Amino acid sequence: MASHSDSAEDRRNDVMERHREAADAVVPERTSLYIGGEFTEPAGGETFATIDPTTTQELASVARGREADVNRAVEAAWEAFETEWSEHSPGDRQRILTEIADVIEANADELARLETLDNGKPITEARIDVDSAAEQFRYFAGIVRENGGETMTEGSRYGQVISEPYGVVAQVIPWNFPLLMASWKLAPALAAGNCTVLKPAEQTPLSALRLAGLLDEVVPDGVVNVVTGFGEEAGDPLTRHPDVRKVAFTGSTAVGKQVMTNAAENVTDVTLELGGKSPVVVFSDVDVPKAVQLITAAIFYNTGECCEAGSRLFVHEDVADDVLDGLVNAIDEMEIGDPLREATDLGPKVSTEQVDRTLEYLEAAQDAGGRFLAGGDRPDDEVLSEGCYVEPTLIEGLEHDHAAVQEEIFGPVLEVFRWTDYETMMELANDVDYGLAGGVITDDVTQANRAARDIEAGYIWINSYHDLAPGLPFGGYKQSGIGRELSADTLDHYRQTKTINLSLG
Ligand code: NAD
Question: Which superkingdom (predicted)?
Fold first, then answer.
């Protein structure tokens, strides 16, 4: 094993070797489509490569699903629904969901390493994803029996209001939390009694395929189907399929709009969890080191590739210099490097395309007079030269209407604005098309509550960030989405209401 005194080449080779060994141990053998309980080749026989963003080497060759494969998967899902799954009681589904949680936990180490290889996220964060994925299934297992329904009697009229599953649902997910997003989708859909066709992101298909392999022993054939492939080739036909009764999508707002249009062709119900450009508001009374810690986590967790990332900082003038100095120091101390190492705080971005996209925003910000207090480029470290790395970056001095401020960069980039007047600051904080989340840092309860109510967003943290708990609904205002995940409400997004009006006369 190379040490810090070794040459850059030795250390780079060390990273390569560590990733090769991990890939040999955890990349799943079966990377074809998973349809009707079987791993099966795509009709066209095509594949595509998924890349390890730390080394930019190919990790695996994965089935490239297209419309014919989507059709096969939707058919298999309906067959499973009609012949078996719709007969399962809530109690059966509760048992199966619990078994899924157990099987995820039993394979947690393998799943975490696989996620780190395919996505580039630090292994410590990948472990949190895996635990949270299991937790999703446990949460919905816990509430699946609460399937009440209502009745109404009025003269000779006896009314019943019941909820029924849609049957077959389509679920399309992004690359930033591949396993976690799969669990956010699968757990409520199955709990509500549906069968599903899941389309993972083309950048990170491996954990969904491994999960399919694990579910094979637990879930009846055809209840969960996984079609890997590209958005236009597999996601598009899936979300416009006439036999799909519900579309659930997580991804960018641009693609979300397209998915909504697709679903409109068949008047299919849609939930959308989309992008964000969330404000973090810091008041003058804060404890600076604590605020710095929260702000750092808000933007740099998962390399900034979080829909809810706190990417616009509004810091009160009275503490701005101290907070910014603290942030520059915190960035200096961050370990950027191999995400398989326990000490790493910031890994690579998911792909070279995402690096280029982030650097384009940084260039535009510089051209517009943005001052880089930290970062602004790829790291100047030969060992990282093969990987998809971008420095953690702090920018001050941009106009709030600049594209880098208005649009989701989805990288480790924080834009800073100082404020003195609350109303003016809040106007800017809300002056974006997004409304997914927000953060407020202050020990003044009244200020905290006022700001939490004034920020136009679906989820506000006061003196914390990224802390999500099953039972507390998550979802966006404005162009950040429609619907809520993580809560009992989510079950209703996967069910339809039926009224039965019986005449007793
Ligand atoms: P993306 O929109 O490019 O892709 C998401 C998924 O949609 C992928 O599986 C992709 O293959 C598929 N897709 C692409 N084109 C399609 C089409 N025409 N029809 C159907 N499917 C299509 O997003 P991404 O780059 O993978 O992920 C990042 C985005 O996801 C960010 O905007 C982020 O904010 C968002 N996100 C939101 C949440 C949330 O809960 N709100 C959570 C995670 C990520």
Answer: Archaea
